[in-house]
C-alpha cells in the first residue's frame, strides 16, 4: 500500500530504498557515532590549521618578517600553508595575528570537510562492490 500516492517511495510504512542502500538507513546509533567521528576529524583538521599558523607566527618572531616575504622555497611553503598571508601579500595589506590563526583554522576545516566527504564516498563505492 502506498502512502500519499507515492508508489515506490513508501510501502507498508517502510522505506523501499533501505533495501537498495541499507547504509543510508542505518540505525541512529550508527549514524550518530559516524557523524561524531567525522566532526572530530574535521575539528582535528581545524586544529592542525591553527597549529600551523601558530608555528609560522612563532617562527616569524625569531626569523623576522623579511624571511617570510622572501621568494624562496620557504616563502612559498609559508604562503601555501597559510592562504590569508598570500592574500595579504598579494593585495599589500597587513593582517593581524588573530585573523591569520582563525582564517587558517577555517580554511583547514573546509579542506577537512572536502577530504572527509570524498573519503566517505570512496568508502561507499568500495563497500558496494
Determine Rg (CA atoms, Å): 23 Å
Morphology call: elongated
Strand order of the largest sheet: 1-2
Number of DSSP E strands: 2
Largest sheet geometry: 2 strands, antiparallel
Domain count: 1
Oligomer state of the chains in this structure: single chain
End-to-end C-alpha gap: 32 Å
Mean pLDDT figure = 77
Beta content:
under 5%
Low-confidence stretches: 1-18
Helix content: over 70%
Structural class by SSE content = mainly alpha
Question: What is the count of helical runs?
Answer: 6
Give the topology string: H per helix, E per strand: EEHHHHHH
Keywords:
two-stranded antiparallel sheet; disordered N terminus; 2 strands; 6 helices; mainly alpha; 129 residues
What does this protein look like?
The longest helix has 36 residues, at 28-63. Helix 2 packs antiparallel against helix 6 and helix 4 (73-81) packs across helix 5 (83-91). Mean pLDDT is 77; it is low at 1-18. It is built from six helices and two strands, in the order ββαααααα. The protein is mostly helical. The relative contact order is 0.11. The protein has one domain (26-128). Strands 1-2 form a two-stranded antiparallel sheet.
Brief characterization of the structure:
With 129 residues, the protein is mainly alpha-helical. The protein has one domain.
Amino acid at each position: 500500500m502506498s502512502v500519499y500516492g507515492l508508489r515506490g517511495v513508501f510501502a507498508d510504512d517502510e522505506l523501499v530504498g533501505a533495501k537498495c542502500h541499507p547504509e543510508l538507513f542505518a540505525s541512529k546509533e550508527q549514524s550518530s557515532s559516524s557523524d561524531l567521528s567525522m566532526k572530530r576529524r574535521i575539528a582535528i583538521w581545524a586544529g592542525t590549521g591553527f597549529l600551523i599558523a601558530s608555528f609560522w607566527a612563532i617562527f616569524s618572531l625569531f626569523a623576522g618578517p623579511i624571511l617570510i616575504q622572501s621568494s624562496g622555497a620557504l616563502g612559498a611553503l609559508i604562503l601555501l600553508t597559510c592562504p590569508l598571508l598570500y592574500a595579504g601579500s598579494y593585495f599589500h595589506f597587513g593582517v593581524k595575528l588573530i585573523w591569520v590563526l582563525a582564517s587558517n583554522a577555517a580554511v583547514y576545516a573546509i579542506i577537512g570537510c572536502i577530504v572527509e566527504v570524498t573519503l566517505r564516498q570512496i568508502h561507499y563505492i568500495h563497500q558496494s562492490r
